[in-house]
Amino acid sequence: MYNKLVKKFNINTYSMIKHGSVAVITLFGVGILFGIKNIMIAFPIALTSTVMGRQNFQVKTFNKAIKIILIDLVIVLTAYFSSMNIFWGIPINFFAIFLIMYTIVSPYDLTFYKPFIMLYVFTQYAQVSLGELPFRILSVIFGVLIVVGASYINRVNERSILGKSMEEAFILIYNQFKNILKEEYDHTIEDKCSKIMRDIAYKVYVTRHRRYLTTNLGKVQFQIFINVEYFNLYMIQLYGGIKNLSISKEYVEKLKEIVEAIIELCKDNIEFQTIKESTDNFIRQWSKGEEYHLEISLILENL
């Protein structure tokens, strides 16, 4: 019954559990540590968790966390001053909401400003005294740290799932290269690799991984998936070239070595710069000649 409801309404249970957990932890944590008056901060924090889940906190994590904390502190202090007097509170509210909506933006997420608006409204409405203000500030910092931690864990989890699929695809391509050098071709390997790429595309589109498409990182990764599939489909042409002697085994051997290096890179056994130099050397040596040489060189360059 439960599974039918989930499928019928396309409910993202993982997202519900993740963001709900952030809200519950913030609710009880803030209530216990910083007082009942600050409990309502759990609601904008939960919305912040939803929005920040589309951001990449694996790059400049500390800087991004500090930036969000500073923005929230300015919002809390502004809301506090606007609540002190109704006459200067009205213009302060007007300009504060205007500035939040038009300055706190993300080019890949038009809803980025919403949790900050909610934080301002909640903290402005639930007034605190000057003596209670430090606890409110600490509660906001506490909530932001929970959100950043949850987003970081989520990104690491997604990376491990998608990264493992990529490694499996390259291992299949590597095995196909070994077959081609023996003048053999295994269509089951091609089908398995294509299935892995289709499964990744499906994950990206219909599950929580679809949020990858709203970031630069996601667009780059999705483009990599497409190029891996192109690479897989070109194997049959390489096999045909080996059979009719239009492609040298040296060319295929060099490609196999690059794919082997990519597999080692997926396992973190070599540095990116090493494989980049090998790929650049290959492109310079083999990009001229047959049309498929250029096509494969372009695929490698995109990878």
Helix and strand arrangement:
Blueprint: H1 2-8, H2 13-34, H3 42-52, H4 61-82, H5 86-103, H6 114-125, H7 133-181, H8 187-206, H9 216-243, H10 249-266, H11 272-286, H12 291-302
Helix pairs in contact: 2-3, 2-7, 3-6, 3-7, 4-5, 4-6, 4-7, 5-6, 7-8, 7-9, 7-10, 8-9, 9-12, 10-11, 11-12
In words, what does this structure look like?
There is one protein chain. With 303 residues, the protein is mainly alpha-helical. The protein folds into 2 domains: 12-154, no CATH class; 158-302, no CATH class. 77% of the residues lie in helices and 0% in strands. It has 12 helices and no strands. The longest helix has 49 residues, at 133-181. The two termini are 44 Å apart.
Q: How would you summarize what this structure contains?
A:
It contains twelve helices and no strands. With 303 residues, the chain is mostly helical. The chain has two domains: 12-154, no CATH class; 158-302, no CATH class.
Beta-strand content: under 5%
Low-confidence stretches: none
- In round numbers, the mean pLDDT is 74
Which structural class fits the helix and strand makeup? mainly alpha
Elements, N to C (H/E): HHHHHHHHHHHH
Per the principal axes of the C-alpha atoms, what is the gross shape? elongated
Alpha plus pi helix count: 12
Q: Give a short account of the largest sheet.
A: none
Helix content: over 70%
**Number of beta strands:** 0
Question: What is the rounded Rg?
Answer: 26 Å
Question: What's the number of structural domains?
Answer: 2
Distance between the termini: 44 Å
